[in-house]
Structures are given as structure tokens and as C-alpha cells.
Design brief:
The complex is a heterodimer of chains A (about 130) and B (about 220). Chain A has about 130 residues and is of the alpha+beta class. Chain A is built from two helices and six strands, in the order H-E-H-E-E-E-E-E. Chain B is of the alpha/beta class. In chain B, helix 2 (about 45-60) runs parallel beside helix 3. Chain B is globular. Classes of the chains: A alpha+beta (about 130), B alpha/beta (about 220). Strand 6 of chain A pairs antiparallel with strand 1 of chain B, so a sheet runs across the interface.
Chain lengths: ~130, ~220
């Protein structure tokens, strides 16, 4: 397979497994990612690889939610950070000048995980002394 | 059952990024300029690099190369003809190089001591998608585009083109028969990576190599 999404999925499994180990007994229900529009990650490929990478691990069955972040550039002339439409032209949407200063769009991170935990077992109420 | 959200805010490729940061520090303290060459298969990375290594050696500079490939060592043998030390990295099916592969192949490379080098080139696996996410500790990422590929490559692979520090157009000796629209190619590169340095070269005729070599020399002083 020549998809780097499989390597990425494997890295997520490793990272989440480690983070979840701090919560014994909990099951990971969902893993939430932040992925920039320029991160070169194909959502469908990553989801496909996620199934493969989690198989036979404690993460099997966990959902993968991908929050795609648009590209934001900084325009010196206008002094603003602005979201650009698509990834085909890096120009300030306000003045139309080329804007090389990228402020968002390359993210590739695990934002959070949703855990399902068994309800805590309450200690027996102490019997009142008669 | 109760559910709760645990914030992680953790880079997916954190391990690679940390390893790459360590390599970058190591390269900087050894005083070696490291470049990561990325392109599609067939752009002419190897021919361009071979010519670069030859020209650098002729000028008395010390240059070496790590070359990534899925299976063969053909590229390493071609590059070694330049006289420069070359080491092959076979990824066995993996579509990109990562920082760990670089670290591993720097170990036990007897011909090379980083401190004795002026330049270390890393020829990545031919691929315009996957290598963009993997920092190798390089200071300069170079994207190559040949005149045979179509002027819209930068628009099709913005993730990689946008991450590059320099762009090299290869095979300009055959630009005309290929109907290469130079203006359009330059415009497209600039739309995706505004202000990037662009070199128009031919490894065959040597066209454009002077400007490229001058850029390399200038970068070693930066």
C-alpha cells in the first residue's frame, strides 16, 4: 500500500492508546482530529485505514471524526488574517494580493478523545448506629 | 455508563516532528546545509542531483546524498558516479521518507562525517503527496517539476508545493517540443507558494545550474 494515511492512522492508534491508558476501564468511543486543508490527508483514505489500523486493538470500533480546517493567510497590506476559499490560490480575499504568510491549514492533530466509562461503584452507605 | 471528552491537542506526527527537530539541530551545529528534494516519479530528481553533486565537487565543496527508493538501488549507483558519497534508503513500499529513516541511515555511514560536509541532499521517494507531512530535519525543501508534467501540477498538489522553500523546473531543454507553457507554470507555482525562488534548469545541457549553485552557496552563509 502506498498511502501515507496508513502510517498516519497507525500513529493515531499509538498516541490514543497511550492517552487512554491513563483511564483504565474506559472504552474509546470517538477520536476527534483537526486536519488542515493543506495537510495532504485524504479523509476517505484515512477512515479506511483507521478501520485497518484499529482492528484487533482496544480501539477497534472507535469512530474517527475529522474536522477539516480551511486555510487562513495573513495579509500584510490589509493587516488581517483571512480565510481563503479552497487551496488553489493564496491571495488575500480582501485586496486580492498574493499572501505567503500561512496561519492555518497544515494542522494534523488529535484534538480530543471521547471515553465511555463504567459508572463509579458507590460505597455502601454507612449504617446508622441505632 | 458515562462519557467524557479528554482534550489531547497532540500532533499526530509528533514523534517524527521531534526526531526531525533533533536532526535539524544536529545539522546546524555540524554546519551542513540539508535539502529535501521532492517530486513525482520521473521528474528527473536523480539526473538533477547528479549534476548538482558533480558541479559542487568541481568547485571543491563536500556534498553527499541519501536517496530514498521503494526497492532498487539504481539511483544510488547513478549518483555515486558523481564521486560523492551516496547511501540508499529502501523504504520497501512506504511512500515517503521519515525522520527515523534519516537518523538510522546517518548511523554507520563510514564515508561521511556531518561536520566534514557542506551539503547533504536527501532525494525523497517520487511522490507529491505523502512526503509533504514528514519533516526530515531539512533546512530547505525543494520541489521539482519537469516540463513534461503539465503546468497545473502545483494546483493539483498544493500541500506539497506550499510547503516548499524553492522550486526547480527540470528538462527545460525539451520545453519547446513538449509545448510547455512557461508563463503559466511560473504563475501556478507562485499562486500556491507566493514569492518562492524558482530555478529553470536542464541537467543535460547545464542550463540554469549556475543560478542554482549560486543559491546553494548563498544558503550556506545564511
Amino acid at each position: 500500500m502506498t498511502m501515507h494515511e496508513l502510517s498516519i492512522a497507525a500513529s493515531i492508534v499509538e498516541s490514543v492508546t497511550e492517552a487512554a491508558s491513563a483511564h483504565p476501564g474506559a472504552r474509546v468511543k470517538e477520536v476527534r482530529l483537526r486536519v488542515g486543508a493543506l495537510a495532504s490527508v485524504v479523509e476517505d483514505s484515512l477512515k479506511f485505514c483507521w478501520g485497518l489500523a484499529t482492528e484487533g486493538t482496544p480501539l477497534a470500533g472507535a469512530a474517527l471524526a475529522i474536522n477539516t480546517l480551511p486555510v487562513i493567510v495573513h495579509c500584510d497590506a490589509c493587516g488581517i488574517d483571512a480565510e481563503i476559499a479552497g487551496v488553489q490560490s493564496f491571495r488575500c480575499p480582501k485586496c486580492g494580493e498574493l499572501a505567503a504568510d500561512l496561519r492555518q491549514g497544515r494542522e494534523l492533530e488529535i484534538e480530543s478523545i471521547e471515553l465511555e466509562e463504567p459508572d463509579p461503584v458507590l460505597p455502601n452507605p454507612v449504617e446508622e448506629q441505632a | 455508563m458515562t462519557t467524557r471528552i479528554v482534550e489531547l491537542r497532540r500532533g499526530i506526527l509528533k514523534k517524527n516532528d521531534e526526531l526531525a527537530a533533533g536532526l535539524r539541530t544536529r545539522f546546524a551545529s555540524a554546519g551542513v546545509l540539508v535539502l529535501n528534494l521532492v517530486s513525482s516519479p520521473g521528474t528527473g530528481k536523480t539526473a538533477f542531483l547528479e549534476r548538482t553533486l558533480r558541479e559542487l565537487r568541481a568547485r571543491g565543496a563536500q556534498a553527499a546524498a541519501l536517496v530514498g527508493d521503494l526497492e532498487t538501488d539504481n539511483d544510488a549507483r547513478r549518483l555515486a558516479a558523481s564521486g560523492a558519497p551516496v547511501r540508499q534508503i529502501n523504504t520497501h513500499g512506504i511512500c515517503h521518507l521519515d525522520a527515523e529513516m534519516i537518523a538510522k541511515h546517518l548511523e554507520g555511514w563510514e564515508q561521511v562525517s556531518l561536520a566534514g560536509l557542506n551539503y547533504l541532499f536527501i532525494e525523497n521517494v517520487g511522490n507529491l503527496v505523502c512526503p509533504s507531512s514528514y519533516d526530515l530535519g531539512e533546512r530547505i525543501r525543494v520541489v521539482l517539476l519537469s516540463v513534461t508534467e503539465g503546468e497545473d501540477k502545483p494546483l493539483k498538489y498544493p500541500g506539497l508545493f506550499n510547503s516548499a522553500d524553492a522550486a526547480v523546473i527540470t528538462k527545460i531543454d525539451i520545453a519547446e517540443p513538449c509545448g510547455f507553457d512557461r508563463e503559466l507554470a511560473l504563475k501556478n507555482i507562485n499562486e500556491i507558494r507566493p514569492g518562492i525562488r524558482i530555478f529553470e534548469t536542464s541537467a543535460k545541457t547545464g542550463a540554469g545550474m549556475e543560478a542554482w549553485l549560486a543559491y546553494l552557496a548563498e544558503q550556506t552563509k545564511a
